[in-house]
């Protein structure tokens, strides 16, 4: 796990134990990360900072309300990212963003839209990620979970920048298929 993951998880665990100061610190740090995440995603479809701020508030509130569903044996950032992603997908649905308005780089945001899946889902993201090939897993973890740029992910994974993009796209589709398969069993 990264240092950032370790720090955030330590704050979450202290928060779950009733430490109010740790809970405030956790939500402040997550707010900064979520703000950057949403601004980046929304800028790609011509949306503004005010909408990003609304999404930050929605995600932080969901994290606060659903913190009891966090499994302390698992990493925190995939759990937070799942909530953030579903809030973004809900926003895109609510605002009736057309698929034509979404660039090919952002297509994964609207492709995995299952109305029965919510942020509280109990899917073990880490276990599903382990079922992906190494390069796919590395690219998704670097860019989607750790917030690295495509260039940074390419260095980290030892592959080209285009391979990072392809692995992310294919990996997210594979994860969606794995989730659907598990839902049916």
From TrEMBL:
Gene Ontology molecular function: DNA binding; sigma factor activity
Superkingdom of the source species: Bacteria
Parts of the chain that traverse the membrane: none
Family: Belongs to the sigma-70 factor family. ECF subfamily.
The keyword Transcription belongs to this UniProt entry's keyword annotation: yes
SUPFAM superfamilies in the record: Sigma2 domain of RNA polymerase sigma factors, Sigma3 and sigma4 domains of RNA polymerase sigma factors
RNA polymerase sigma-70 region domain residues: 28-96
Name this protein carries in UniProt: Sigma-70 family RNA polymerase sigma factor
All residue ranges annotated as the RNA polymerase sigma factor 70 region 4 type domain in the record: 125-175
Gene Ontology annotations of biological process type: DNA-templated transcription initiation
Alphabetized UniProt keyword annotations: DNA-binding, Sigma factor, Transcription, Transcription regulation
Pfam families: Sigma70_r2, Sigma70_r4_2
